[in-house]
Amino acid sequence: MKxxxxxxxxxxxxxxxxTLLRTEKEWHYIHICQSGTLGTKQLLSQFHPRPGRxxxxxxxxxxxxxxxxxxxxxxxxxxxxxxxxxxxxxxDYVIAITGDTMLxxxxxxxxxxxxMKEKNLGLGxxxxxxxxxxxxxxxxxxxxxGKGGGRKQEYVPDHQPQFYVVNHGLVREEGxxxxxxVINRWTSxxxxxxxxxxIWGVDKWARHxxxxxxxxxxxxxxxxxxxx
Length: 228
Hints:
Number of domains: 1
CATH class: Alpha Beta
CATH architecture: Alpha-Beta Complex
Shape: globular
Largest sheet: 7 strands, mixed
Number of strands: 11
CATH topology: Spore Coat Polysaccharide Biosynthesis Protein SpsA, Chain A
Radius of gyration: 17 Å
Order of helices and strands: EHEHEHEEHEEHEEHHEE
Distance between the termini: 30 Å
Strand order of the largest sheet: 3-2-1-4-9-6-10
Helix content: 25-40%
Number of helices: 7
Structural class: alpha/beta
């Protein structure tokens, strides 16, 4: 089975380095995309770009967007770039992680993939059921005044960005995650979830998502969230 690892990071050098140290041999393809260049030399001392191993950088967007907008803008840009880079490749599954998600070992990931195969589902995602995220109709002034929330996380298309699994056929054939629309500039979970709606429609997205956890950080078989 050919697996790809896609990592969107900022300054989580130690965490990403540990992930590479522990799992590098498991991946047919690795692409790391960093916002800014903090710690680049330290990271590249453990990661040597070569065929199947790619390291990209984009400008840090902190000067362009408010603190509330920055995460979604950077994440959608980086993930779009990462997924586009795999479109011409023959991979079976791609695993997307943020830089503060450390991979210790692969058993849990393999288990998710097997369940996705059994159920014939294209995505393996976690939700944050019960959480109240920012609604897209909020304004910057609302958030600056402490008026947030409004998008309750029930069984909506939204999914967590820290770790998810994608059947690569969806990327290769449908362009999934290759051009992620920032439809909610405050909440990347809605932006990522909307990719299911783009491909399958409002009424059918739920048939294609395998929810491996109802809570954002409930899955811990080989993963450490917010490891920075």
